[in-house]
Specification:
Chain A is an alpha/beta fold and 298 residues long. Chain A has ten helices and ten strands. Helix content of chain A is 42%, strand content 22%. In chain A, strands 5-4-3-6-7-10 form a six-stranded mixed β-sheet, sandwiched between helices. In chain A, strands 1-2 form a two-stranded antiparallel ribbon. Chain B is of the alpha+beta class and 701 residues long. Chain B has five domains: 97 residues, no CATH class; 175 residues, von Willebrand factor, type A domain (Rossmann fold, 3-Layer(aba) Sandwich); 92 residues, Immunoglobulin-like, CATH 2.60.40.10; 216 residues, Rossmann fold; 78 residues, Immunoglobulin-like, CATH 2.60.40. In chain B, a hairpin with a 2-residue loop joins strand 26 and strand 27.
Chain lengths: 298, 701
Amino acid sequence: MSHELLTPELVGRLGRLDLVARLVVEGFLTGMHKSPYHGFSAEFAEYRQYIAGESVAHMDWRVYGKTDRHYLKVFTEETNLRATLLMDCSASMDYSGSADRPSKKQYASYLAAALSYLLLRQNDAVGLVTFDEAPLAMVPARSMRRQLFQVLKVLDALPDGRRTDLGEVLHRVAERVQRRGLVMLFSDLMDDPARILAGLKHFRHRGHEVVVFQILDPREINLDFAGEVEFESLEEPGRKVRLEPSHLRDGYRERFDGWRDGLRRECRRQLVDLVEITTDTPFEKGLGAYLQKRRRMY
Amino acid sequence: MPISFLNPSLLLGTLAAALPVIIHFLSRRRVQRQKFSDLRFLDEVQARQARSLGLRRWLLLLLRVLAILCIALAAAGPRWGGLGTGGTRSVLFVIDNSASMNTGQDEGTRLDEALAVCAEMMRSLPSETAVQVLVAGSRTQPLFGDWLPAGAGAVGGLSLVEATGGAFDLDRMLFEAARLVARAPGLPVQIVLLSDLQEVPTGQAKNGARRLRAAGETHLLVRRIGTATPGGGVLAVDLPGRAVRPGESVTVRARVTPQFAEQVFGLELDGRPVAEVVTSGQDGRAVDIEFALTVPGVGRHLGVVRQETDALPDDDRRPFVLSVPAHLNILLVHGQDQPLDGVAGRGGWRYLAEALDPGEQGSPFRTVITTSAELTTGAVTAADVVFLVDPDPLGRRALDGLLAWVSAGGQVVVMAGDPKLTAYLTDTLLPAAGLPTAAGFAAVAAPGQHTRIIDADHPVFSGLDVAALGTFQDVTWRRWFRLSEGATGRVLVALTGDDPLVIEAPRQAGRFVFVASDLQPVSGDLAGSPMALPFFRRLAAWLAGGGGGAGLNLVVGQEAVLPVLGAPARAALDRTGELLVRDTDGHPAGAATVVWEQGEPRLQGGRVDRPGYVTFLAGDDTLGVVAAAVPAVESVLALRTVAGFGEIMADLDLELTGDLGGVDPSRLMATLSGRDLAGWLLAAALLLLAVELGLGRGSRV
């Protein structure tokens, strides 16, 4: 299956997270010209047939000389990365601007599942923490094959969220993730930027590399509503605002972009990778961001 | 109001301006409800922009409403200024070509200017405008068979308009305009009157005004042509109102308007000047002058009263026809003589016959005497005047013929002194004349009552000197019947104490004269008076009338009618195939028509358009001549102002919409409808929409 077909809309229809994860990752890897494992410190494990387009760096020329066939040498790597996925389950993550698109929480779970699959496939350890205004569930990081099922099981049953207190939660989680590693946060970051950055700084302080996947719905960005709309807050049920978005759109965008610019700037200053993703974006962007980070780390 | 609309009905489109408002309020009711992740930013922008957005929302609504209003108003054909007459779909030009329009100006005449203005106005109209031209002069008739599109064809048709010498008939003009408006292809009809607004009689115009109001929506616009020009004219010529005899001295009166002091007015007969009068003063007002004239020989004499030619030549020469008959035919009808009946007796008719026709050579009267029993219709119609003196009751046929003859213009004198005639007078003759029917035989007991002339200027007495009038009033009478003039009669002679003696009573075109006495010696000394002959001769001559030109002198615009008199004329009727008319310019004008009225034949030669002489011919024989002069009203110097004309229209319940004086004729369209605002409004609509789009940018998804 071509990775181009794996749009969020299509993935959402697959339903099963394990299937989603595998399809997303395999499709993603097949399309890459350069092996994501290149340069990894690993021991030889087996041969596999060369696929056109792959690097010939690990081509076994001896086998080629004897059999006239192309085989690549596959190495078994050592576990050298502990990745902890932080999944924001607050109510704001339940927002979906269109019936055709997954909610932010669904999108985050798909992406987290795919990354988990990818990480475990290369023998990295994966852990998961879900939270809203407090930590909800925690799967300690391990590199076992079954770990994927543990992670997916939690991702598959994410609870309905409540309010967000992202800054506080990040502090608390940072205290509980002991070993240094890669922390990947999936959130819309709908909270006080200063408190968020303080929490992220806490991770950095403890030696973690941090990647933040900010997941937003396109309608949150563009506010493309027509007519008069009564908006009700997902995190604060009962709080409503009635207005005509068409008349407020420019001001809204101005403020929204300002908020995002602030986040970008602070993340850059804290050496936190901020990956801005909308729920209509193919998952490759998230996976690519991870691999880029992985490459920089090793 | 400076703004008007070509298609006011399309103003209903302005109701569409309510659509944005309706949509606005409907859309406000349809509120979507959406769950949203975070209201933080919405709260912020709403707090800051709520007020300005509210204003902008209303401003956008206003812009939309205004834009639609502009488009709807543009569709209705808005015009700024002008007369607000609602467009130029149909324009009726009324060109006054009455006599006064022939007044000369610096270039051409008033009519020339009117035609030039009309042509230029027509050229200024769009081709979709329907135009018609109503020419109002001696006759009032449309120039085109039907409404034409404005353009070269219609303009070219104006060359057919000719000057006439008639009067502007306002009632007829309104009547004809109403007829044309009713057939107009589109309403309202703009009626553009091009006239010098010469004084016109307006009293009879209410019928035409009523018809015009009922015909459809019209707007009456006036452009006055020309200015009041100093000048004089001959307004009327008053010939002796009786038959005249060759060699008789008569007075011809004329009413003239001198154009300067001591102006000379001349009288010409048959092309020769025969008399002159110098007016004593002038200030532009009409004065009466008198010409002393010796009647020429028997026959038709073409005369003219003239003055020095001024700007309007048509009224400077007023033609007339003076007819001098060879003789007057008198039919004297009397009853059976009853000389010794013990009261008054009869036989006075002999004195009358002697008075009228003494057998002298050259007597103007030819008398035929018959009795009541022998009276025939033929004898009546062959006579100029019939005298009934103490008549016996006439037979039914004879009476019917006599009354028909009177109705057609015949003249009858009834003289009675026999009391046996009381019933006949009461039951028959007085009712026939329309006089009160009580003819009481109440003789003034004794003779000796002097007569009194009621009106010394009456044609019977005019021209008599004081001595003659005194002699007549010295005559003593015995009045046998007490008569009354009633409502229609007129007393010519009375006895002392206003007791009527001679009463004139018209019956249609003819006339009865009752004399409450006869010429019996016992009736007074009239028979022996030196005034007996002059009185009855004058009475007969007046009644015969035609010598004064009655019926032969008319004004332009009237039908030329020639009574057929005398045996030669009647013989000419046998040659009806040769009856022709020559118009005032001497050109053949078609065949004359024979019309019988009350048993009497008349020749009709059609309506006269120009002043001059209309000649009736039977082959090479001239049957008669009729003189047509310019109506006196066309000689009046004063022109009405447009405001004055508007007052006349107001009296007729017609509104004068506008004065086109001073308006450039080539801009008639703009003058009537004003400046076209549609383009401006459409541009404004586009501008408003552009502003609306700019203000509401990003608000439409």
